[in-house]
Model the fold of this input.
Amino acid sequence: MLHRRIAVALLLCALLPAGAGCRRIEEAPPADPAETASPEPEPGDPDMPPHARPDLTEALRADRDAPRSPADGGGRAWIEGDANATAQTPGRWTVIYEAGPLGVAEGGAVYLMTSPFWGWSTPQTFDRDLHGYTEVTTSAAGLTLEAAAVDAQLLQVRIGGRALAPGERIRFLFGASETLAGPDRFAERDERFWVAVDGDGDGVRRILDDSPRIDVAPGAPARLILTLQSTARPGEPARLVAALLDASSSAAHFDGDVTLDALPEGLTGPTRIALRGGVGEASLAVKARGVYRLAGRSGAFEAVSNPLVVDGAAPLLWADLHGHSQLSDGTATPEDYFRYARDVAALDVVALTDHDHWGVRFLDQRPELWEAIRSQVRGFHAPGRFITLLGYEWTSWIHGHRHVLYFGDEGSIYSSLDEATDDPRELWAALSGQPALTFAHHSAGGPIPTNWAIPPDPVFEPVTEVVSVHGSSEALDAPGSIYSPIPGNFVRDILNRGMRLGFVGSGDSHDGHPGLAHLESPSGGLAAILSPERTRDGVLTALRARHSYATNGPRIVLRARLAGHPMGSVVPHSALRDGALLQVAVFAPGEVRRVELVRSGALSVLWEQEGQRDVSFELALDDLAPGEYLYLRVVQLGGGAAWSSPFFVE
Ligand SMILES: [Zn+2]
Ligand SMILES: [Zn+2]
Done:
């Protein structure tokens, strides 16, 4: 389903401001892998892999390069009356368009486009009984308006009879019939009713930059979540965040409180947390070692937190390194994206990675959008508390998508559509000398698989995103494996070919909910970063060393050491002469069903039981050979999962 799945499902025709080279692309629905499995990709031309979409790249370039007349995008538009909506609550809105000094030629057109993200009705004029029925009128004499929904979310009004003169108006009553119009699923400030104008009638349009804004308010509270810091040492404080969410996991507009059950021995702090705008937090004092889970309630809603593990071990940081805002094809302003990450999802590290060239407006064409992101990244960054990273998504329809993260305040967009940087090797060359990393994602299928024929750069790409809202690219046998899978293109296949990659998960959220994408999708993604430093440098150092692991959303604490080495390490075979001890500890929010080992491509079950959330064991591996790799996979009841970064034996 479109709204449950992700942005590339969208309709290129609606997305392209020009509509040049317009064609429909649909994401394949999730399906039985056995039915959709295509043959293993042949290692052929690395410059044009078998699943590439050069047609899409060409269409995007044609749109980018299509000449616009001065009359395109002319005029202004506004919402008459109430410019508010409530998520998932049908309504009716009036949009007025007024022609600019150049007017709109006879044969030209004015377009009304609701946001393609997520769930707005298409403005349409063909059926009063369907959502989004729209009346299009004008008081200008001698004008004919020919209105037609020409694509999802896109209503075209062709101007006939004569030109629309400067100052003349067109009125759109969106949701005109009793069925009204359906708004977005997700709360969002400053969402737009996009208006575009083909002023000279050549079929090329441009959007109005100041298209009308509408605020979509969250719905009523529907669930409570309690997020507890995952690790602490005795004597340190631990942060607890409470959030009351609406039915689509936006923070509900609610002022009240959460009452915690009596705190367990070993923790002290308040048992009442005030909620403002649905969110609140408390600082707990940690007195003693142990594993803690807290329960609380707010009105009819109850929740149990994830575990807090208090021992002497090094801390971990929870990160979501991949997500989208309304500046490309997601929900939320950049400011609200970062606020949600910090205050609702209680992340330690977050990146906003809007597309370089995908969505309604394009970052690589509009420096002001990139500057808006940079300024929010700078504003929210608080070393020691909350780490923000500047980034974007290099959205190649030839080689697969990669997001680029910068670990300083500076960074440029090297566009996947720019002929100078449309190959990953050119991207890495452009990044040379900069504190940056790149992350291949949905690499085994989804909207576009990764072209592994070009090996990941060892400096810029030490880790790979094995799980997100698209599902898992680890292996076909993974919980929630990716849709449209390409056998032979999974991360496990790549490790089998000798590449060394650590693992992260990240949401690729488009719903404005970084860190909690799994609440609205069968799968999400988080990265656990094993960094003793809560700084950008600490995160960069940990990722370069592959000291990280992935989950598909739940905050599973996973500890693993091989012969004393942390996950992600290259372990010299000489260190394993006396046998290799694999030490494993898991502290999970849910019941752990299995702990599995993948060793040089082979899957085995190390531990399998019911009824336990905390699991620890040791295993002697006495026959590891140079060139082998191994990693752990933890599976909870219900499909929550974690993947350790691999150990590599050298
Ligand atoms: Zn992507
Ligand atoms: Zn993405």
Observations:
- The first strand starts at residue 76 and ends at 80.
- The helical segments are 12-15, 33-36, 54-65, 334-344, 367-380, 424-431, 491-496, 536-544.
- Residues 1-11, 19-41 have pLDDT under 50 and may be disordered.
- DSSP finds eight helices and 40 strands in the chain.
